[in-house]
Automatic annotation (TrEMBL):
Its EC number is 2.7.13.3. Keywords: ATP-binding, Cell membrane, Kinase, Membrane, Nucleotide-binding, Phosphoprotein, Transferase, Transmembrane, Transmembrane helix. Residues 247-457 form the Histidine kinase domain. It comes from the Bacteria. The keyword Nucleus does not apply. The chain crosses the membrane at residues 6-29, 157-180. GO terms for cellular component: plasma membrane. This is histidine kinase. SUPFAM superfamilies: ATPase domain of HSP90 chaperone/DNA topoisomerase II/histidine kinase, Homodimeric domain of signal transducing histidine kinase. Its main location: membrane. GO terms for molecular function: ATP binding; phosphorelay sensor kinase activity. It comes from Pelagivirga sediminicola. It is a multi-pass membrane protein. Pfam families: HATPase_c, HisKA.
Length: 459
């Protein structure tokens, strides 16, 4: 009964019963008055029968009193008070009730007092004769019959009140459910559906209630949901822009580092032949510029769709390893590639370069941080339905935190100070090709990542 309709049902039943109690009190007082007036009328009829005959037998007189339900009948006619019918009283008269001038409060008080008092008493009742047959009529009667009749009437009133209250409560319960509870339930369902997918505009409340207050609530809710969807989309765009800037900063830093190394070599060498390295510098800078322009043009975190073309995998792997050898400096790190010459695949060469470069760079940084010699290998192969690129190293392995948040930005960094964006970017780029990037193995003996690209459109 914690629902609105349940509580309304209980309150309705209580209030109806209270209303019936308030009706019961004057009703029982009216019943008592009618009962006594009826006895007065019956006594008057009996007295007229007595006055019609000059001499009646004691047996007939007793029968008249029994039929009237009284002990004595006194009439006042022509200023003369006359005892018309009489019989012995079982006890003294305990109270006198004059119905001629009795007010409502007096009748209610006397009725409640009679219900409360279970004793058998004899009372005197005074009233006006019907049809002006005298000035007044006075009777004596016992109270047991009166009280029993009042109790019987009261029980019938209470039963009727209970039935009325139940019927009224049920009808009001059904009315409340139709008029109030169902519209509120619909609003609640709409709110739950919207909460499960706040970015889906289909979940916005459509106002339909005919009740003014509920319709205003529905319209307000719909407005709030619409504004929230706009705010969420704006927040998503801002978050996407922030993520895009972070990705640009990450990859641009690494690409420009390679370009800087080439530039340093060009500046310190007096050999004119070294100028042959200028194209590599131009290529590195071009990659940085293209990355910035494409990301900022879209203004969102998602990478652009890959531009597919057929190319030799060995060329990409060689570029990555040449760049990382320069970055390794004096570190005791060896690089190797195991890619069949002429092995081609269909993919976006710039995006695949970034993926392999990120993985090889992470491996190189992990080995360099350990201070021990190591080896990094890039292998390329294929199966019947997929192209496989495996990057392995003999480094110290990924720490537990990096494994737990492997592809989570800013949490999956494998080295101190790392942002963890490299693996996130790489996984997103591979997914854009319809493939997967998985961690095959990591431990004290090294780490292995596997890039799987489907051959359907790529091989």
């Amino acid at each position: 009964m914690n629902s609105i309709s349940g509580r309304f049902l209980i309150l309705t039943a209580i209030f109806v019963m209270l209303a019936e109690v308030l009706i019961f009190v004057p009703s029982i007082a009216r019943f008592r008055e009618d009962f006594l007036l009826s006895r007065l009328e019956r006594a008057q009829i009996a007295s007229l029968a007595r006055l019609a005959g000059d001499d009646i037998s004691p047996e007939l007189q007793e029968e008249l009193l029994i039929n009237a339900g009284v002990y004595n009948v006194v009439l006042r006619r022509n200023d003369a008070r006359q005892l018309v019918l009489s019989s012995p009283l079982p006890s003294a008269i305990s109270a006198t009730y004059d119905l001629r001038d009795a007010g409502a409060m007096t009748l209610i008080r006397d009725a409640l007092a009679r219900l409360w008092n279970p004793g058998e008493e004899v009372v005197r009742v005074i009233g006006s004769p019907v049809r002006s047959a005298g000035m007044l009529i006075e009777i004596t009667m016992e109270t047991k019959t009166l009280r029993m009749a009042m109790i019987d009437y009261g029980l019938r009133i209470l039963v009727l009140s209970a039935v009325i209250s139940v019927i009224t409560a049920v009808l009001l319960f059904l009315a409340v459910r139709v008029v109030l509870v169902r519209p509120i339930s619909r609003v609640v369902r709409s709110m739950k559906a919207y909460a499960s997918a706040p970015e889906d505009a289909r979940g916005v409340m459509v106002p339909s209630s005919s009740i003014t207050e509920l319709r205003e609530a529905e319209e307000t809710l719909a407005l709030m949901q619409t504004q929230l969807i706009s705010a969420l989309r704006q927040k998503e765009r801002l978050a996407g822009l922030g993520g895009a800037v972070a990705k640009v900063s990450h990859d641009l830093r690494n690409i420009l580092t390679s370009a800087q190394l080439f530039t340093d070599r060009l500046e310190t060498s007096q050999d004119p032949m070294v100028k042959r390295m200028a194209p590599k510098l131009v290529n590195s800078i071009s990659r940085a510029v293209n990355l910035c322009e494409s990301t900022l043009a879209y203004g969102k975190a998602e990478e652009p769709a890959p531009r597919l073309s057929r190319f030799a995998l060995l060329d990409i792997v060689t570029d990555v390893i040449d760049s990382e050898r320069l970055s390794a400096g004096d570190a005791d790190i060896s690089f190797s590639e195991d890619v069949r010459p002429g092995f081609q695949l269909r993919a976006d060469p710039e995006q695949l370069y970034r993926v392999i470069a990120n993985l090889v760079r992470n491996a190189r940084q992990a080995i360099a941080a350990s201070g021990k010699p190591g080896e990094i290998s890039v292998q390329g192969g294929e199966t019947d339905d997929a192209v496989l690129i495996r990057i392995t190293d003999t480094g110290p392995g990924l720490p537990p935190k990096a494994q737990e948040h492997l592809f989570t930005p800013f949490q999956g960094g494998a080295t101190k100070g790392g942002s963890g964006l490299g693996l996130t970017i790489s996984a997103e780029l591979v997914r854009g090709h319809g493939g997967t990037l998985t961690l095959e193995h990591t431990g004290l003996d090294g780490t292995s990542f596997l890039i799987t690209l489907p051959k359907g459109d790529l091989g």
